[in-house]
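Weekend entry, working from home. Most of the wet-lab plans are on hold until the incubator is repaired, so I used the time to fold the two sequences that have been sitting in the queue since the last round of cloning. Logging both here for the record. First:
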Amino acid sequence: MLAIRLPQSIEKRLERLARRTGRTKTYYAREAIVEHLEDLEDLYLAENALERIRRGEERTISLKNALKRHGLER
């Protein structure tokens, strides 16, 4: 179970959307979280990888070499 407080303006928008479409506010809140969660996970994973690269803990290769390695060079 999750309870969140939303600004009144967002709450009203959510209520209008739910009323107009016949769906619940919970449905739209869940959809928004599910949709955005993957983007947030990707962002944090990328930031973590960048920090490891900057610390020298992770190596990189050029795009040219990556394409060659996977047989995709032109």
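Second, folded right after the first finished:
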Amino acid sequence: MDNVPILTILVFLPLAGSLAVLLPGARGAACCRMVTLAVALCELALAAGAVALAPRVSAPDGPLPGFFLVEDLAWIERFGIRYTLGMDGISLLMVLLTALLVLLVVLFSWKSHIERVAPYHALLLLAMSGIMGVFLALDLFLFYLFWEVMLIPLFFLIFAWGGEGRVPAALRFFLYTIGGSLLMFLAVIGLYLVHGDATGWYTFSLPALMNTPMTGSLSCWLFAAFLLAFAVKTPLFPLHGWLPDAYGAAPTAGSVLLAGLMAKTGAYGLIRFAFPLFPDAATAFTPLLLGLSVTGILYASWLAFAQTDVKRVVAYSSFGHMGLVVLGIAAWTPVSLSGSVLQMVNHGVTTGALFLMAGMLEERSGSREMASFGGLWGRAPLFSGLFLLFSLSALGLPGLNNFAGEFLVLAGTFRVSPVAAVLALCGMVLVLVYMLRLAQGLLFGSDRVQGEFADLSPREVLILGSLALAVVLLGVYPAPALDLLRVPVALLMVSTGGMP
């Protein structure tokens, strides 16, 4: 496979599929779904195939240490822009998560009543292409290009296929994200010019820009611009204003992509770009990031408990759990950073499953209000059992996936800030309260469901069973995922001087 451009295929096969479903001869619903499914299956197969290459890590003194797959070509040489893609253990886990969730979203949409089927599936694949590019780009110009491409399909999925309040939700999402992105673009240009003036070499290459000499104040300003863009996408308190309406109004597929994948691009940007490019500024911002992360965890738990809409409970739960991810990144120890990356995967699996099940509730009953449900355990035992499993995973039950990630984040953070770790732990205890309240309200008590409530179909069992398997495997045996992180996390520590 050495001569196969795996990374390029991962990025551009979904784009090709997106264009294919829009062709005049392929606009039938069945054809669109088959093409989209075929592309998603190929992406998952390629991502799984890359796992076999993961042990072949490049030597520490190589041009791109830690990256076992690299594709580098000249692109716009006049401005120092190159087409550089790379995969290490961190990006491999993100690519696997992306391929899995998009495939399951396609399967979920298979029987759903969707208007304008061709554009809908084209946007799913375009979003996949942009997200894959974000996780693999090692040239800042190329990264920013994919970062903006990712925004377009997600905006239109909310705007055109969302539910009540979709227009203001889509506009708010667009304004928040484009505002942060434009500031990051200015910072990228500024870093490019500073590096060129200092070295005579104008480039957007990430490894080269990591050694850019600059003053402390300039470093802080540039880091703040990157941080703002990534914090909006994650989202980090108090830049989460777009989240509840966007997650609530988006179609189920859009909610899964927003919470399960787009939020990870923000955290990934902090790990791959912001902290390695500006280690001194990141150290200065560490107390602020720890404070905002803890505040977000506690605030999200409080708001989640007050919600009556199942989807909004999951949305605020997602917000809180991503605060824990940022907490581990801010602590920047090998243990906390490994836990944050593992938790990004865990969060994508668990939150994706809960959003899918919220969509199944709405399809069956036309409602997402908790007051409309109850007694589902007797009516739909398969649905109820899996919903309880994912709820227990979200609250961090030992033996399920979230526990391992949360433990590592809190243990690593405790070495840097015991107060932040203890307060975050209190926030995790609050998760126990609202998730058990949600599960009890839906599954037990008096039966309040009007009409028939069908249990899971074989297609839905396949979708949720795949995620349930991941929940159990990552909870019982997270070692393979953590082994993939050992080298890239160690190299990140070295590149930033072992901060904080």
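Plan for Monday: verify the second prediction. The first strand starts at residue 69 and ends at 76.
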